[in-house]
Amino acid sequence: MGHSNVWNSHPKNYGPDAVFLVVNRDNLLGGKRKQRGLTRVWVYWLKTILRGKMSSDRQWMYKRFMNGILIQEFLNGLETFINFACSQSRWMDGDKIKCPCNNRKCQNMSFRDVNTVRYHVAKYGFVPNYFVWIYQGESTMAVDSDQNEGSESYVCSEEPSNTYHRMVNEAAGADFNMDDMDEPPNPEAQKFYDMLKAADNELWPGCKTHSQLSLVARLMSMKSENHMSEKLFDQVTKLMKEIVPDNNLVTDNFYSTKKLLRGMGLPVEKIDCCFNGCMLYWGADSDLISCKFCDHPRFKKPPRVVEKRQKTKVAYKKMYYFPLIPRLQRLYASNATAHDMRWHSEHEVEQGVMRHPSDSLAWKHFNQIHPDFAAESRNVRLGLCTDGFQPFGQSGQQYSTWPVIVTPYNLPLWLCMKEQYMFMSILVPGPKNPKDKLDVFLQPLIAELNHLWDVGVNTYDISKKQNFMMRAALMWTVSDFPAYSMLSGWSTVGRLACPYCMDKSDAFTLKFSGKQSWFDNHRKFLLANHPFRRNRTAFRKNKTVTTVPPVVRSGDDILTEIQSLGLKKVTEMDATRTNGPICRTCGWRKHSIFWDLPYWRSNLIRHNLDVMHIEKNVFDNVFNTVLNVDGKTKDTFKSRKELNDYCRRPELKRNEATGKYPKACYTLDKKARQTLCEWVKILKFPDGYVSNMGRCVDMKKLKLFGMKSHDCHVFMQRLIPIAFREILPLNVWKVLTELSLFFKELTVTTIKTDDMVRLENDIPLILCKLERIFPPSFFDSMEHLPVHLAYEARIAGPVQYRWMYPFERYLRKNLSIFKHPGRAFGRAKKRCMTDEEYKAARSYVLLNCEEVAPYIEYVYPKWLQMAHKGRGRGRGGRDGGHGRGHGRDSSSILRPSVQSVPSPTHPIQTSPSPSPSLTLSPSPLSEIRPPPIVPPPHTSDPSPSSTPHSTPSDVVPPFTEPSTSSSIVGSSAGSAKLVIEIVDGSFFPSHKCSAIITKSFKKMVDSKAFSWKKVSKSTKKTYFDDFQSKAAERYSDFVHKLKIVRDRPDFIPEDKWLEWLQYWEEPEVKKKSEIASKNRRTEVAGPGTGMSRHTGGSKSTIEHARELARELGRDPNFYEIFRKMHVKKANGQFVDNKSKMIADLVEERVTAASQPVEGSMDLQPIDYDPIYLETIGGQKKQRVYGIDSKGVDFCSSSRASSSSVTAAVDEAVEQRVMETNERIAVMETEMKEKDQQITLLKDEMQQMKEVNNEMKEMKNAMQQQMTNMQSQLVALMQHMGHRVQTEHPPVGQPTTDPPANDEDDDIGLDD
């Protein structure tokens, strides 16, 4: 009987055991049976036999309950099923098994952990008629009915009959030899297995639960998942070492644990590289000490202090390379993955259907070109991806690192592209983008890939117990469009950005926008007789298209062109000088290093276009243009200006009468935008389907912001046809729906070749329809690239194996800078700061934040005076010296806390300058929520040099909460907490702090406490002891609210409240209140000038005067000090209008006074001090405006009287004052008129609201009457014996009338 006789005969001719043997042997050999009809008969007969034998033994599977309680027989059988499923590693996904419960989400389709499977089966039961556990691996096994239920045994007996021998030999073929013996592992693999065996010893004699390896692996897993610090890890291991019996193998610290696992881990190479990224000190260049391209030294020059004793030289920059070979060998060293690495050649392929890259034309073409490589199914096919990654986030330090990730495609559908099979091979250091020099860092990987192709590596396959020469080949690369240029060498910017069209592109530069446009670049992809090709009006004016689409060039043609141009690789000498002139004449920028791979030219697809980023960019352009988002829409003024130069759109021409452009049909008016945003805001999705899009809606600007790539993916494919159905014209909605369906069909998990051919023909037509609607500025390179996506899918297979989604998730999860040991871990947005970071953050708040500056300047010095009585006082402050301070600078008291800032390895660092201010890296603090701030323990001996954390023993720390609070993140029992939040990058106390301040007022209120000055000292002390902050300011707000409301709160007794009311009604108090209110509203220098300010900062005026004296070599005058204190250093402007007006008046007076007298040509000497005093009104209480008393005493210039100023100057000043008063009077009159108009508008609005309410009431009454009349009519008709049918229009039926364009008829694009 030949090879096919077994399959051509009916299975009834053999026994059930023979069926098992054939099916099992066929699976082991990986044979592909073409007679699918007879194969199905064999499988059906096999299942029929199994159900007959198993149904009697496994009836317990469908007898779960007895009197509502799970019976013990079912529970025992369930454990048997779990044990069997866990023993079949090749049918598992890591430690997960397929769940056979009857829940619609499972049913042997989803992998779950063991506990979840046990719970699901107990809750939902098994799927019906599942007596044979084929999805857990039982299809290749037989069950002996004579054994206990649930036990299994292989059918192959040690002494098979001659019939079985003959049948198996005929089915297996001549190449099969049952006498083959298993091979031992090669020395490298054996070394690894021996190490595992040595580490798999008992922890102590008699320990059966854990080995040394299992304990160490478990501890390292816990450290990784919970982000344990090394200190905590050491403490845990030491505790375990003390608990377990003596003579144990428990490691006692992190170092010994890591050392034990280092031999089992994967190697890493640190390679020195040039500081400018020109070369690697690797291979033949490993001994160089300077760059051969730019002569930059390799090593840093050590400081003189450590120059003699330093032995190891430190390189300026290093790259990390993780060899690929050991990782690929591990895939065959594990039972969990060794068999799956052959899945690509053993699975059944359906003609014309692609579910995996192995089903694609590119894979099959590679097998045809390289049959020797394809003959060994265990050879590995690889994909490469790279992308820029910012470890400090978008708003942090600008540092860009580029990881290079390699992933195998041999694995089956459910394992391919999973995170555990993505191998980071190279980590390119920052801080800059390597750009074209990325090839420099790819050299070790390319060399290893060449070795894997030319020679291979001896590898042990544990699933077959064989050694074989494993080879590997790189199929393609995956990257976004900018990285496409870095990998391929073809420029992706400018007119030649398309890597398929190349020099056959019809892109052009727009006249006014100055950008490249791919408008009218897609008619050449249509059929030759399509009417769009002959259209002269809908596309570019007076232009027809007869050209054919560009042919996809082969790798041999491209390599020949690159070599003919003379382009060099960036690793070669003089590459920059040679490639520079060539780049200006073509789209090639370099000779890519990937051409060093011998098989690279034979690949059909070498670099993939990333569907993820293309889809997101297309969606952004469509959505922002339709919603007319300012700054992001493609329908701009310049676009409209140049529109009719390229195409005929007379309806969008500029209205010469109004100077505006009319609204386009593809944009929404304000009402439609508001409707759309409200709909998106309340939209609900299934859990885990998409993020909360409601957070992306800005109802004020009527736009969507902050949408991630997956959000755009869902909106593009699922929501656009629904969202725009009723608010856009039909022709616009149809083409946008077609575009949405194109991306939806393109990204399905199972694609058909016929569907991809149809999409190749549809997408040019869709783009041409878009060109008839949108302006030329809409079509950038991202709108052009979809025309090539269907071709790539037809050649390379499903999109989900060639886009950036899995790689982006891998980078975001595994390369985050915020996953430090010892922190609580969240979504990379929140973490708790360490004590050192907390101290640095608190010091930053106290020293650098503008929001806390008033506290530092006023309240905190006063508190220090109270806490440190008799330790030095002084005078100082702002303009006029109205503030009092302490003799010592507050920064000197805060300085000790700055010294406790963590080392430069932490995100928060101290400034190298001697100034006490801090430099705070915004990246970790702008994306995290800091922990509660914990006040330190009280000090019994306060001193001026104590840190801000320390407080006197008789003073309670400010803003503390009860120690029992446990709702705060990071809080612990027995400690008082203060929450500090980060809002827009600045630190702010939480609302709880302000609430505690207000609560302190409610605890005790004096009867005479009409203002802060009236509050008794004992009550003030209570307030200060309670919160220690701006008590005066807060109390004034507190009293002011009570005075306005005049409603007695519960915490003020009635007798005290009557005294307060009586005091407020006194004439003197009223008059004083009116004067104070008037003074607060008064602007000394005129309307809009505001309160006076200065730029002196925390320095006193006398310090600024001394600095000026050192700079000038003499004592400064009043005016020079004034300018020093009121002019901004950044732009040279005054801080407010008042100071600018004073300076202008002084300059005028100085100019007038310096004029020469009659009969003389010499300018008169000027004494600035009298002029300045005359301008500001002289001294008041021994103070001068802008200069305090110390500054006045310091100045040694004479105090001249105002009589030295000439009468001419007085007249000029008086004239200017009169003009200013007249302008103020006119402005006051206009303000009064506007107030009257506002009052009238408010009255009209109130009347309209009343009329609206009346109309609503009338409408409700009429509806009620209509309902009553209808009920009476129905009753009457029934009484007369007629059958009544009432028809109601469907609720929510859309109207055919288009939405009214009320106020948005013009888009308002002016010159």
Can you walk me through this structure?
- The chain is an alpha+beta fold and 1311 residues long.
- The strands form ten sheets. A seven-stranded mixed sheet has the order 5-6-10-9-8-13-16, with helices on one face. A two-stranded antiparallel sheet has the order 1-2. A two-stranded antiparallel sheet has the order 3-4.
- Mean pLDDT is 75; it is low at 1-53, 140-181, 817-829, 870-989, 1196-1209 and 1282-1311.
Question: What brief labels describe this structure?
Answer:
43 helices; disordered C terminus; two-stranded antiparallel sheet; 7-stranded mixed sheet; globular; alpha+beta
Q: Percent of residues in beta strands? A: 5-15%
Count of discrete alpha- or pi-helical segments spanning 4 or more residues:
43
Major beta sheet summary = 7 strands, mixed
Radius of gyration: 41 Å
List the SSEs and their pairings.
Layout (H helix, E strand, L loop, with lengths): L4 H4 L7 H14 L6 H19 L10 E2 L2 E2 L1 H16 L9 E2 L12 E2 L1 H11 L37 H11 L14 H13 L12 H15 L3 H14 L10 H9 L6 E5 L43 E5 L3 H9 L9 H4 L6 E2 L6 H9 L1 H5 L4 E7 L15 E7 L14 E6 L9 H4 L1 H12 L2 E5 L4 E5 L1 E7 L2 H8 L19 E2 L6 E2 L37 H11 L9 H9 L23 E2 L2 H16 L10 H10 L23 H12 L15 E2 L4 E2 L4 H15 L6 H17 L4 E2 H19 L9 H4 L1 H11 L8 H10 L20 H14 L4 H15 L5 E3 L8 E3 L3 H9 L9 E3 L7 E3 L1 H5 L53 E4 L2 E4 L1 H13 L13 H10 L4 H15 L8 H11 L2 H15 L19 H12 L5 H9 L10 H17 L14 H9 L12 H6 L12 H73 L32
